[in-house]
Known about the structure:
This protein is of the alpha+beta class. It has 4 domains: 3-63, Beta-grasp domain (Ubiquitin-like (UB roll), Roll), CATH 3.10.20; 68-262, Threonyl-trna Synthetase, Chain A, domain 2 (Threonyl-tRNA Synthetase, Chain A, domain 2, 2-Layer Sandwich), CATH 3.30.980; 277-324 and 363-560, 2-Layer Sandwich (BirA Bifunctional Protein, domain 2); 574-668, Rossmann fold. The strands form 9 sheets. It has an 8-stranded mixed beta sheet. Strands 6, 7, 8, 9, 13 and 14 form a 6-stranded antiparallel beta sheet that branches. Strands 32-31-33-34-35 form a 5-stranded mixed beta sheet, sandwiched between helices. Strand 3 and strand 4 (45-47) form a beta hairpin. The protein binds one RNA strand of 76 nucleotides through strand 13, strand 14, helix 8, helix 11 and helix 18.
Amino acid sequence: MADITIKLPDGNTREVPAGTTVGGLAAAIARGLAKKAVIGSVNGVERDLVWELQDGDEVAIITADSERGLFTIRHSTTHVMAQAVLDLFPGATFAIGPPVENGFYYDFELPPGPDGRPGTFVPEDLERIEARMREILAESQPFVRDELTNERAREVFADHRFKLEIIDGEADDPTSATESGLVRTYENPPAEPSPNPPFHGYPGFIDLCRGPHVPDTKSFLGHFKLMRIAGAYWRGDEKNPMLQRIYGTAWATKAELDEHLHQLEEAAKRDHRRLATELDLLSFPEELGGGLAVWHPKGGIVRKLMEDYSRGRHAKGGYEFVYTPNIANGKLFEASGHLGFYEDGMYPPMEMDNGTYYPKPMNCPGHNLIFGSRQRSYRELPLRLFELGTVYRYERSGTLHGLMRIRGFTQDDSHIYCTPEQAHDEIRSLLNFVLSVLRAFGFEDFEANLSTRPAKAETVGTDEGWAEATENLRAALEAEGLEYEVDEGGGAFYGPKIDVKVKDAIGRTWQLSTIQYDFNMATRMGLEYVGEDGARHTPIMLHRALFGSIERFFGVLLEHYAGAFPTWLAPVQVRVLPVRDDHDAYAREVVDELQAIGLRVDWIDASEKLGNRIRKAKGEKIPYVLVVGDDDVAARTVGVNPRGGEVERGVSLDAFAQHVADEVDDQQHVS
RNA sequence: GCCCAAGUAGCUCAGUCGGCAGAGCAUCUCACUCGUAAUGAGAAGGUCGACGGUUCGAUUCCGUCCUUGGGCUCCA
């Protein structure tokens, strides 16, 4: 047979016999490669290992340790799960099942139960499904690719209404795109034909799918675990029926699976809700109502330090401090437009004899009243109004999540009013300011999103206004050297925005800060300034928050630090432990001296053994534990046991005090 | 709001096939006075999330509601 020539990613070519497959090519290159090969990329399109190559094809072998290889493993695993569910639940049907980060899911509809309502999975079902999946794996069923005509596909999937919608193009399934009038499928022929096959004309499982897949259910699969059951709306629309989704995680090796499960445990240990309870920082009393928190003294002091720091930075940054009330007459929110757009998300009104009042969901209308309280000149712009403003939003009950999504929260909110000429420089310095403040809280890694104009008809503002605003935001991102992704059409109807995200200590990203243009509200509320030309102009209005919400930011910090706040933020910075009762007097002296320089210090007497008192202090994640005994009383020293460090005996009290004072000072002066 | 699950002492959790409610830690008291991650003894602590129903009897079974968790949808 004649040879064909294949181009490889390194630029070399290779002659192989005609009829060679992707898998055959991998074997021809190296045995190790063939072993790891999951799929191949042929002329930029991913193909199964059994795909036959043509002369001149450009081919790259995709291995199990690559992102795309892992993606394929997850994708194939979800097919196996669907087969298992259809086996175990006669009459069940399925919708879509893509690979996702760390795993996969599939959405199912179970036949109705005796009460006529659609069936649901129970947690024990996951074990049964997983056991059935392992049987399917053991059968080593091949993944067989085919292309059917629409008519044929409609027959095969006649009992599967969601698949029919996909075949008809009414529903989108990213893993089963159709091409040239043909419907692509993958079949897993079973060892024994099913007594009641759920598909017409096939003995076992078949799915709409563009592939590619691992060669068979025995290869590469098996390092998976079904994680949880969830409800999910068909086509993501809450008006559609709710399906039963099963999430699973899948990896190329057992070690990776174990590592992932271990990381989930680690993340659970730093869950801010758990730490908030353990460290006595704050709580969500049931009596208070859902999504509302009370701050205990230890959480309160951290919050106060965050607020003090924020105020200090804003004072230096040219902001002016304002206060607006927590409730306002509904007319204000009519004027601002909030009542029209977001009434459902607002706490219900209070009817008073002189009007209808609402808890404020936003601070901007109040700030706009301050701007509009007298005639403004271009000479006083940019005007930066700042408030730690507490707002109330009636978040839907199912969306609440600890401090991350809460109904009453405080924004470090500012509205900046400037002229169009000032906007460019203002945004640049603003972004710099944002990053500088975030760095002080221990964040190093930043990413950003630049969200641009949504569909034009749904937006306000001029083409030029949008273009210029978007360019100003982009220029600021580039000036700061910040990596960013453009979220096309992701802006609000009233303007484009930058969202700043931080990466925490275990690599998760959190969206925190936001900088938003607003072409809408200044006009709606009739805000004007007199320009150099003596004419009236509408100011550019920017909304911005650094922490976003103090509650949420605190939650992120708590998880970032796993509860071990840096010294400048720690509720208790130093704990003094006298060895015996007769060291109490000196312990008090140490406390007094450290308190005198502004440190937060406490002490615990010797009614418990020293070892246990140290253990408790470590549990509270106190940065410094000082032990004072006979030697120290005599020499005015302390034994220093720092968090995460080595014990040092005989440190002079003055030197220790200076060390901690310097540390606190350094931590707050990050540029 | 929708689907699933959970709610028992301050915390973490066991338990009751319907019959006086349990542990560890924390708390309090007493003793111990100790040099770097758990000293001992004792005490106290509960409307078993709330309200209805079934029952001689409900923390347990049923229903409704509330709160929380995992998702979906939403997030000015």
